[in-house]
Amino acid sequence: MLESTMPKIYDLIIVGGGLVGAGLAVALHGTGLTIALIDARKPSSDDPRLFALNKSSCQFLENLGLWDALAKYAAAIKDVHVSHKGHFGAVRLRGHDVAAVALGHVIPAYKIETALNDRLLALPDVTLYRPATLTTLTEANGMVTLTIASDEKNIRLQSAIVMGADGTASIVRDQAAIAAETFDYQQSAVVTRTRLHRSHLHIAYERFNKTGAIAMLPLVNNDYHECATIWTADNAKASELMAMSDAAFLEALQNEFGYRLGRLQAISTRHFFPLRMLCAEKAVNQGVLLLGNALHTLHPIAAQGFNLALYEVALLAEGIKERCAKKELFSITDLQNMIARSEKQQTVSMSVSHRLPQLFRGTSMLTSLLTQAGMTAFDMAQPLKKIFINRMMGRTGTVPRLLLGANE
Ligand SMILES: Cc1cc2nc3c(=O)[nH]c(=O)nc-3n(C[C@H](O)[C@H](O)[C@H](O)COP(=O)(O)OP(=O)(O)OC[C@H]3O[C@@H](n4cnc5c(N)ncnc54)[C@H](O)[C@@H]3O)c2cc1C
Predict the structure, then answer these.
(1) Domain count of the chain?
(2) HSE-up of residue 149 (Cα within 13 Å, Cβ side)
(3) Is residue 199 one of the residues assigned to a domain?
(4) Is 233 domain-assigned?
(5) Considering 29, 79, 132, 341, which has the largest number of Cβ atoms within 10 A of its Cβ?
(6) Residue 179 Cα to ligand 1 middle (Å)
């Protein structure tokens, strides 16, 4: 394989052009920084996931100028309804309670990826290396040198700052010697789209059961009523769900979810995602900073992963933009301080995502009564609900400007 001798030098290198890496590159446009973005794959429309984005994340996409391209695929979530199969009591979270038109939106992940990539192609300050795979990362004299394999040749790139947004199995994290804690939930998610006889009325449902939970989220479809189904279950049950015929799956879904959305009509192709938690021991080592799934991979039950990552991206982009506007240099320590402002949000998102899958699984009478009583009490406690709804919308603590609307 050919190797370039002199490394190409950038102000910033981002490894991983998934939603998080691409989101950061787009958000940094206008800083005047030279940025390299590396990804092992070309952009594709293969991702079948359907993301529930909170109000802040939608605002972020709007502030990047991407909402015009996304709005037609984005279904508003006006209310959230949480219940537990076989138990009384439910929690209803209404946008109306906090004077919000929508708590968030559900958007196909590949539409967000397409919008980000279309924008990236038009940015002169971002050099794209894709498909190109990071193979080595070394650090010396305050500079990080990367070797990437692209088109039968090795290319060397150099920067004082490298962002690792290369996903759960991050090579950047390994090569920067950042340890990570992992937890295998022994659960998987089965994702599909479910056709309905009637409108979803923009309500997002989450129904817990003994082996996991079923989320039914509103979708935009101009031809018929449809919602996204994310069924998380123990691995054995999830494999069983994948092996069923469409008719048997639909019947199982109707039995477990009930009739809140009426009689379910049909499902589309099912997709399978094994679930595990990953939490890097630290975000920064020497000239490397981790982001997104490389930093923390969360159980999707509370739809927090991408929302949390965008909060961190917004903190970084805002901090970097301020420095660049004042023509001030910044170091990896400055970035570490910027991202440290997300610690509280990170702790909350991680603990909710980690504990929820276990909370409803207790089979004892006591656990059952406590969750039932807890849900009923919570549903009646308006002030507590308002705090919770605002947190769900990403509207607590110091919210970076990039996540706020013009009038906020
Ligand atoms: C079923 C499911 C549903 C979810 N639903 C929601 C939701 O509703 N709301 C929400 O907020 N979050 C949700 N999430 C979480 C969300 O998927 C993640 O937070 C998000 O995808 C993280 O993106 P990322 O860019 O960090 O990682 P990735 O999407 O994994 O991207 C990593 C990128 O790095 C590239 N890469 C990897 N290795 C290399 C290498 N050596 N060299 C070059 N490039 C490399 C890959 O090609 C890839 O493009 C869900 C997750 C799952 C599994």
Answers:
(1) 1
(2) 5
(3) no
(4) no
(5) 132
(6) 19
Q: pLDDT of 351-373, one tens digit each?
A: 877 777 766 665 555 555 556 55
Inside any domain, residue 390:
yes
Provide the domain limits for residue 147: 2-182+276-403
In a domain, 231, yes or no: no
pLDDT single digits (tens) 248-270: 999 999 999 999 999 999 999 99
What pLDDT shows up at residue 145? 97
Between the CA of 375 and the centroid of ligand 1 the distance, in Å, is: 32
Q: In this structure, is the dihedral angle defined by the CA atoms of residues 196, 202, 75 and 106, taken in order, positive or negative? A: negative
Rounded to whole angstroms, what are the CA distances from 82 to 28, 55, 206, 359?
Answer: 37, 19, 5, 13
Give the distance (Å) from ligand 1 centre to CA of residue 19.
7
Binding-site residues, ligand 1, Cβ < 6 A: 15-21, 38-41, 49, 51-52, 133-134, 165-167, 171, 189, 191, 230, 273, 292-293, 300, 303-307, 309
CATH number of the domain encompassing residue 380 = 3.50.50.60
* Distance (Å) from CA 384 to ligand 1 centroid: 32
Residues in the chain, pLDDT under 50: none
CA gap 33, 224 in Å, rounded? 46
**The pLDDT value given to residue 143:** 96
Q: Classify the C-alpha dihedral 267-271-274-280 as positive or negative.
A: negative
Residue 367 one-letter amino acid = T
Tokens of 203: 């309500």
- Contact present, 27 and 64 (Cβ < 8 Å): yes
Query: Which of 306, 348, 352 has most ligand 1 atoms within 8 Å of CB, for mutation?
Result: 306
Q: What is the mean pLDDT of the chain?
A: 90
Comparing CA positions, the residue from 30, 354, 3, 280 lying closest to residue 145 is: 3
